[in-house]
Amino acid sequence: MSAVLPQQAPSSAAAQAALAARPLQPFDVLDQCHQQVVTMLHRMDDLVAHLQETGHDQQAQQMAREIFDFFMGPAREHHLDEEKHVFPAIIRSGDDELVRHMLRLQQDHGWIEQDWLELAPHFESIAAGYNWFNIDLMAQAIPVFQALYRDHIALEESLIYPEAKARIARWDLQGMGREMAQRRRSENPKN
Ligand SMILES: [Fe+2]
Ligand SMILES: [Fe+2]
């Protein structure tokens, strides 16, 4: 199992050591992606501050490229992971309360995508060195996007992930890991 899932960079030496000590599991990948989302949401603030204080330079372009690439790629893959593996485990629970929360999360994925599609051209423009981004609009829309995403992650980590984990059998977890790895390889053959 450890070899099938591409690792994303751990945030600290301690986290790196902990990951090296045991095989990477599918829920580790999901947790790592949440950490990356949090980092990228912060980076949006850094980028807006940089544009306001320093202007549209090479550093701004790099920051915008990193944010754009992350939300176009790994963040969307993460939502697919949840919709293919985590949410179905909640549906199978037959617990109405859990299913209600899961349906909210599923709806959030739609809102997150819609909000991102409105923001994406601005990041793309900055990354490409063009000036057709709107900093005022970004400064208004980014906090809404951040709040939606942070609430979403909080509900997943506090309730839905633990409940799904408790319901996904070990052999199903292996299948989940294989599907996640295969999908990433087929969409990005360089991995
Ligand atoms: Fe989600
Ligand atoms: Fe998530």
The CATH topology assignment is: Four Helix Bundle (Hemerythrin (Met), subunit A)
Order of helices and strands: HHHHHHH
CATH second-level architecture: Up-down Bundle
CATH homology-level superfamily: nmb1532 protein domain like
Tally of helical runs: 7
- Number of beta strands: 0
Helix content: over 70%
Arithmetic mean pLDDT:
91
Structural class: mainly alpha
**Tell me about the biggest sheet?**
none
Protein described:
The structure is a single chain. The protein is an all-alpha fold and 191 residues long. The chain has 7 helices and no strands. The protein has helices at residues 13-21, 26-53, 58-72, 74-93, 96-128, 135-167, 170-187. Helix 3 (58-72) packs antiparallel against helix 5 and helix 4 runs antiparallel to helix 5 (96-128). The longest helix is centred in the middle third of the chain and has 33 residues, at 96-128. The chain is globular and about 50 Å long. The model has no long low-confidence stretch (mean pLDDT 91). One fe (ii) ion (FE2) binds at residues 34, 78, 82, 153, 156.
Q: What are the main properties of this structure?
A:
mainly alpha, binds fe (ii) ion, 7 helices, 191 residues
Topology, element by element:
Layout: H1 13-21, H2 26-53, H3 58-72, H4 74-93, H5 96-128, H6 135-167, H7 170-187
